[in-house]
Write a structure and sequence with these properties.
Number of helices: 10
Number of domains: 1
Largest sheet: none
Number of strands: 0
Shape: globular
Strand content: under 5%
Distance between the termini: 82 Å
Structural class: mainly alpha
Radius of gyration: 28 Å
Helix content: 55-70%
Amino acid sequence: MPSRETARRVPALLPGLLLVILGASGFAVLLDAVLERDDLAGLDQPALEWLADHRTGWLTTVFTTITTVFGPYVLPVVVAVGCAIWGWRTHRWRDPVMLVGAMVFSTIVSTVVKALVARPRPAGELQTVPGVESSFSFPSGHTIGAATLVLVGGYLLWREARTRSAFVEWTVVSVVVVLVVAASRLYLGYHFITDVLAGVCLAVVTLGVVVGIDRWRGASVGATHGEEITLAAREEDARLGPGAAGPTAASPTPPARQVPQNPRTADDPSDR
């Protein structure tokens, strides 16, 4: 018979598990299309040819800047500095470390999949700067990096607030950033549509792993389902003990101290 701790932890894993299944299923569909060269992969070449025929100077400059910021040289520095400031300002290093770990995990997964699938990049005449990208094409490393950053980073920040407005902001920022970065890779001719979609799917898998680990640790300190309290606070309360949370509204008010009356100053008729 499962213990109470196990019974509490298993349901906590479900949201993360569902995200992993969702991302992995989408990735499997895309991988099959790429290997079989059918379904959605049939749009890869026509889409890139259309984008290459409709490039403009100013838009090429904008998308080149975006793809540079989210590239393998700038983005790691931005994440490292941002996480260092995050930990220093909040004095909590668990969340920044989780974000860095998620970025490293997604990068490793992307590198391994690229080597296994070994899909060539689009033809040089479709690229704005032919030969600048030397790695394989599937999945898009820029897209998986950007998506992991906004999905995992947004989740860790939303978990602190747990408000509807924070969730909407996280969703909007994630969609905008992922679309812009993915569009830059397509517009510049460095990736196919299936490449950037596969990157998004793997980022969802990474988010699922982080959510699962986070909720598993939260359940380990006895948090009940739906409890509106951050994991950091739960861990702190568990470390400091039951008395760390301070007095509650239900705590009885201590009675006022009774000061004994001096019999010499009392209203005694004999003193009159």
